[in-house]
Amino acid sequence: MRILGIDPGLANTGWGVVDTIGVRFRPVSFGVIKTTTDTEQPLRIHHIASQIGLVAKTYHIDVVGIEDIYFTKNISSAISVAKVIGAICHELSSMDKPIKLYSPVQIKSTITGYGGADKKQMQEMVKLHLGLKEIPRPDHAADALGIAICLGTLETSWSKLRNNT
């Protein structure tokens, strides 16, 4: 199964593609889509969604995992991220790609075993899960790879449970 993980953001949207091989993961590619504040927000959101669509086509994605919105003190930032998530979901749904949304706590729990893990712990575990020598950079791409690993881990677990019943 080929999985696209997405760490959504208006300025930086991380993406990471992994293949599942049984219960193991192989990194395929990763990167970040950047936008600047001198571009109008609707155009930034459109650019992010269309670039994610291009990634999905280029790498022949089977399923997509996206970090869901979480509320912080900065509500305007959360609203912008929600818009990006909506545009990405629209783009990928039009391509008939299944999409799973995961909370930050779900992702951290799945990757590290602890829902309160910090960024460094997450990055180290992503490196280990993918058998990499170094932590993937930039940070948003490493986060996206973690989301892909989360989806692959949870899907494999559910598949085993379904087959055992």
Verbal overview:
It is a single chain. The protein is an alpha/beta fold. The chain has a single domain, classed as Nucleotidyltransferase, domain 5 (2-Layer Sandwich). It has five helices and five strands. The protein has a five-stranded mixed sheet. A hairpin with a 2-residue loop joins strand 2 and strand 3 (24-34). Helix 1 (41-58) packs across helix 2. The longest helix is centred in the C-terminal third of the chain and has 26 residues, at 139-164. The radius of gyration is 15 Å and the shape is globular. The protein starts with a strand and ends with a helix.
Name the CATH homologous superfamily. Ribonuclease H-like superfamily/Ribonuclease H
Shape: globular
Counting helices, strands and paired strands, the structural category is alpha/beta
* Major sheet summary line: 5 strands, mixed
Count of β-strands: 5
